[in-house]
Amino acid sequence: MLASEVPLQLYRNKAEAVRPADDRTETIDGGAVDLLKIYKPLDVHCLGLAVIERKHRASWRWGLGPRTTLTFRLEDQQDVVLRLAFDSPFAGQTIQVRHNRALVATLTPGKAPAEVVIHGVGHNVLHLDYSHWDKPPKLFPNDSRPVAARFSRLALASADGGPLRFPTDSTVAFPYVGSPIENELLARREYAEGKTVLRSLPPVVTLGLTTRCNFQIPCVICDINTRPEEADSSIEAVTIEKAAPLISTAKRLLLHCGGEAMMSKYFDKVIELTSPETTVQFNTHGMLLTPKRADRLLAKGSAIVSFSLDAATPEIYRIMRPSGHFETLLDNIKYYTSKLKELGRPQSHTRINMTVCETNVKDVAAFIDLAHELGVDDVVFSHLNEGLEHVVETVDGGIWDYTKECQFADPERHDDLVLNAWQRAQRIGMPMVFVGPPFLGSRAGALKSIAAQMAAVPFHDRDEETWRSAHHKRYHPDLMPCFTPWQETVVQPTGDIRMCCFHDESKFTIGNIVQNDFLRLWNAEEMVTARRAFFGHGVAPRCHANPCQRCRH
Asked: 36 and 61 in contact (C-beta within 8 Å)?
């Protein structure tokens, strides 16, 4: 049993002890730091705390033995309240709370939150010393963490109800808010000069509008088939407001988050916030891109739109995307591409994409012909991602098994069909991209040169020619340096910020844009340290755990 399963196992009769107010709506005293809401707050350095875990409406966080440490600075003297509630799988567990080495409290598990008042000074170190934690012989042998106590409340607040007075001298001014071209030029110049504290905003912003989809019956390949409804989220007005400077300054705005971006009630609002110099990029199932919404999108500026079809025929489309309507989708795409040609938008781009599996592989060559008929600019193929295992019943009464769909019964036939599609694309001049290895059979080695011509790194334009820095050490001789920490930020629907879309959200969140000003997040110690690591070593430690397609290639 994993320690993260304890709330459902050892504490089944203590559910109320692990059900704080919904952390998506509760607001605590202004300026307080709630460590069950913010994984890594800017103003409090945390050691010995595991990631935030959630189950339904319950949130908790494990303290790790032998000690949890909270370090922070205050501008001047201020009384600070440490609020905490915890339980533990270890009988007799106690926590000794020490402030700057002085013992201030000894606590035992309880349902009611405890409050410990400390007299804060300039530099403050809080130690939570555990009497027991999981060590050999382990109580939880399948969990390597030295878990000690599970916190259902852990926060720092001012004793007088006002804000905690943290120093603010780490901020810098951003000179080109709302000017994407000037801002991007500054970003490239700072990268070239070896800067790690930046005055430029990220030229590329990935903004997650929603993880939800309006399709009542999920597409067979989608992970919505496996994740609980409460795991989904949608962006709110306050997050849009906080992200507005990023949106208006982005040279490229990617609306990717695993859901249908056009379903968000804020989709049109976000488009309105963009600059005419901004290129908006998103994937869509296309059913919501009606002529009226297409006209609204086209009136604003440039866009790169990728339509997810997963089929070239109505029969296969009905299996893969049972809630969609094939003919309506084709009409929507044709309208959009025809209007693009009328307007003459060279920066705009359209494509159709297919996730290839056992069910639809026979459609790959016809997909090239369909792309030509629709008037799109290119075609993108990929295989199913690893990790999912769901099985669903299709609308025609069949069974679609994710694992079996990944394992092509006849790899040689698969390769023949992909090669046929490539040859057809070459004949009609349709660019074709395959993300990941396109060939799976015995001839994969012989077809390596063709595979290289299909290769692409998702979400990365070929910017290497304009992003160059003599300060950046190469991670590998065959790889151009990755400049993502200077170029890009990712904003989840919840407001959580990540450096890269490939980084695990549960582990590598920098902070929250609703609870912290982005100006401080962008130049937080964690971001500056990562940029230094990229310059010195070619990559940051977090990238070893979550290598992107750039490094995998």
From this structure: yes
